[in-house]
Amino acid sequence: MNTSQEKCRDAPLIEIRHLSVSVEGKRVLNDLDLYVMQGETIVLFGPNGSGKTSLLKTIMGIPQYRVESGNIIYRGEDIAERSIDERARLGLGLVFQNPPAVRGVRLKDILRICMVKSGDFREERIIESAGKLNFVDFMDRDINLGFSGGEIKRSELLQLLAQNPAFVMFDEPDSGVDLVNINLVGKVINELLEKGIREDRRTKAGLIITHAGHILDYVNADRAYVMLNGSVSCSGNPGDILDDIRTKGYEECVRCRR
Ligand SMILES: Nc1ncnc2c1ncn2[C@@H]1O[C@H](COP(=O)(O)OP(=O)(O)O)[C@@H](O)[C@H]1O
Ligand SMILES: [Mg+2]
To answer: In this structure, are strands 77-78 and 231-236 parallel, antiparallel, or unpaired?
Structure first.
């Protein structure tokens, strides 16, 4: 590794500083701070309505989420003013919690486009990737149209495999996925985050939202944050925090913050 790459590793891949965001006139994020180092996997816990999805959509650049103040620093550059497609080209990717269906566009068409854009298009790669998620039979279906909750997650993950982003965000990848498929989902997340190689050699990083924590049985996370009312209320070891949430509930997090 050369010196500039080493220097790069000392700085976070992405850093959120004092971020406040509104949507439809409502404040959803308040002075939020977090960072993710290259090679790291971060998990984000929080009760319903605490702003987890809003955070990921803001990082991705969904236009309705208005940055009132603060910075989104990615590879040293503030990207808060950049458009969603520019952010995708810079290497940001998101598995949506509730993505729209796209009538008239087949899943294999969008996979082909993503692969061409990522510079690695091979027709056989489409079937190879779909096989990893037990999803080959869905290639001629319209994107997400009539898909069940678990099928939507696999469809979204497959699109990310094709896109191959460097900073990968997963919004509740475990919700609605049955036991057989959650194993496949976990494997693909591990592949996207290069879990098979040493942390200091990885070029990717991930941020995973989980409500119940099931995905942590399949994917190792390095650190966890808890979000409450649009801010980070604490951070620490994912297993310890999950145990506390399971035994004491989020109310204890509120007390712990006081
Ligand atoms: N597009 C939107 N329009 C209006 N309110 C929204 C929108 N997106 C999020 N919110 C509100 O922001 C709050 C946080 O929502 P969300 O980020 O989805 O929370 P979480 O993912 O933690 O459950 C909720 O009160 C939600 O109703
Ligand atoms: Mg959500």
So the answer is: unpaired
